[in-house]
User: What shape does this take?
Amino acid sequence: MAFRNKTPLHQLAISKLLLAQVLMSVVIAVVFLLAEGISAAGNAMLGGLIVLLPNIYFALKAFRYFGARSALDITLSFWSGEMGKYVLTVGLFIFVFLVIKPNNFIALFIGYFAVLIVSALGLLLVKKSFRKY
Assistant: This one.
């Protein structure tokens, strides 16, 4: 029997990471706005969104269940969330390159990697105190 997690996304620990990703996207876009103009800033923001949107999907999918009795459902929701994240990332890259056609690839990839680094460092943002045994 799976126990559904009814906690809103903004109250989960992952919300700090998502907020940090939003802030990094905005900071990178502002840097490119000041340095190279609005077109580069838009491309940098697109790069950040390519990371952010799949991570929001993952957070909604992965933290759907809680409790020891929901272990199988938690595992399956993490797995499907991660696979969905990969599919969304590839789909967003295809969409950006085929439909939007960015003119500043450097800004796009710097925005992408800057937000991706925030994801990689996410464990430092979501602190929990662990007891030593």
Notes: The chain is about 75% helix and 5% strand. The CA atoms of residues 107 and 121 lie 21 Å apart. The radius of gyration is 17 Å.
